[in-house]
Amino acid sequence: MLHPTYNIHKSYDENYQNGPMCDFEIPKRVKLKPIKLWGYEINSPIGVPAGPLLNSSYIKLYAALGFDLPVYKTVRTVERKAHLAPNCLMVKSNRQLTVDDIGNSIYPFDHEPQTTQEIAITNSFGIPSKSIEIWQADIEKANRFMADDQLMIVSCVGTPSENRNFIDDFVFCAQKAVEAGAKAIELNYSCPNVVSKEGSIYQDPVLSGAISKAVKKAIKDIPLMIKMGYIANEYQVLEILKANAPFIDGVSAINTISMQARNKDGSQALPGEGRLNSGICGSVIKNLALEMTKRIHKIRKQNKFDFVLCSVGGIVSLTDIDDYLQIGADIAMSATGAMWNPLLAYEWQHQKSQLHIRI
CA of 1: how far to CAs of 46, 49, 128, in Å? Predict the structure, then answer.
């Protein structure tokens, strides 16, 4: 039985104020042999990427459930409302998406998933954010829910404005997060659900490299990770990584896959201007995400880059986690899978602990 913690039938603000939903007993955390990460010892390489953990209440729940590397949802230097509800719709998941599907139409339908393999959704929030004062206080609160062998990462994004240039705004956002107690920073360079340029930075080696350099200079020894989307061309991936590698401590990939969410009659499924395209996530994007993990790992190895590889995309089962870790990922994070099956980390950790006992 699946236990979704986010109610896709309600607005983002309702979920922020009243969530997460939790109608099950929280099991005792499973202790494993810790991994070393950026000078920390972490119980397991399992986390939740930027997105589902809206605030400290969500961080508290998922940390207790054994997601030892939770990422606090992306914050901005300015307050911004979420897109209109609905923000998530179920989509049919009868096959894996391919590179030829990117940008094409996909058709949401009214269905409650019964198994993890049915978990596939649109994702269209637009990177909302509370004010700096609110999220700083909440980050400080969320950190208090972390066990000694867990690490919360804070996701930041720059916002084009008249007050600061784009790079300076990224720096300012990261500095404010560190000021609030962030022990690691992720720069969100990839989001298909915004119409301004902050969603496609991962495709620009010059801009992404300049931002990473400036942020790393500002936050010094605090670990810095960047979030990338899917890139089919290996040479383009190489250029992005070459531009960023000197300044970063980790790469997270992928974000969602951009497609056009349409009703059966061809009309736009999500209300509002600029929302025909939305990010598709869940089980259907696993093959593309695996492909990207292999590509980054190959480039990292060939060029002797020294950054942690965090794999995201399509992780909805225990096997999915292992698939990523076995092909070179150092960390595996589940977003959509963890939203519908919040016991995913516990189940994986329990399986590993039992295997260790048998050995």
Answer: 21, 23, 31
Which pair of structure tokens corresponds to residue 310?
Answer: 């965090």
Give the number of other CB atoms < 10 A from CB of residue 23.
8
Tell me the sheet residues that pair with 156: 75, 187
- Among 88, 191, 281, 310, the active-site one is 191
Closest CA to 223 of 198, 247, 201: 247
For the CA atoms of 80, 84, 87, 90, the dihedral, rounded to the nearest 10 degrees, stands at: -170
Structure tokens at 34: 């810790």
Is the pLDDT at 353 greater than 80? The verdict is yes
| Tens of pLDDT, residues 236-285 | 999 999 999 999 999 999 999 999 999 999 999 999 888 999 999 999 99
Q: At what angle do helices 234-244 and 205-219 cross, to 10 degrees?
A: 30
Tokens of 170: 């990224």
Q: Sign (positive/negative) of CA torsion 161, 163, 169, 173?
A: negative
Residue 191 annotated among the catalytic residues of the structure: yes
Confidence class of residue 359 from pLDDT cuts 50, 70 and 90?
very low
Return the domain boundaries, the chain.
Answer: 12-358
Q: Which of 286, 268, 312 is nearest to 89 (CA)?
A: 268
Sole residue written with tokens 């360079």: 189
Question: What average pLDDT does this structure show over 81-101?
Answer: 91
Q: Which helix (H) or strand (E) holds 139?
A: helix 132-143
How far is Cα 319 from Cα 316, in angstroms, rounded to an integer?
8
What 3-state DSSP class applies to 106? strand
The CATH homologous superfamily for domain 12-358 is Aldolase class I (3.20.20.70)
User: Which of 27-41, 85-99, 333-347 is least confident?
Assistant: 85-99
User: What pLDDT does residue 191 have?
Assistant: 64
- In eight-state DSSP terms, residue 54 is -
Rounded distance between C-alpha atoms, residue 207 and residue 166, angstroms = 10
Average pLDDT, rounded, for the chain: 94
* Whole-number percent of the chain with pLDDT over 70: 96
CA 224/CA 186 separation, integer angstroms: 6
The DSSP result for 38-95, as a single string, is TTEEES-SEEE-SSS--SHHHHHHHHHTT--EEEEEEE-SS-BPPPSSP---BB--SS
Q: Which amino acid is at 210?
A: A
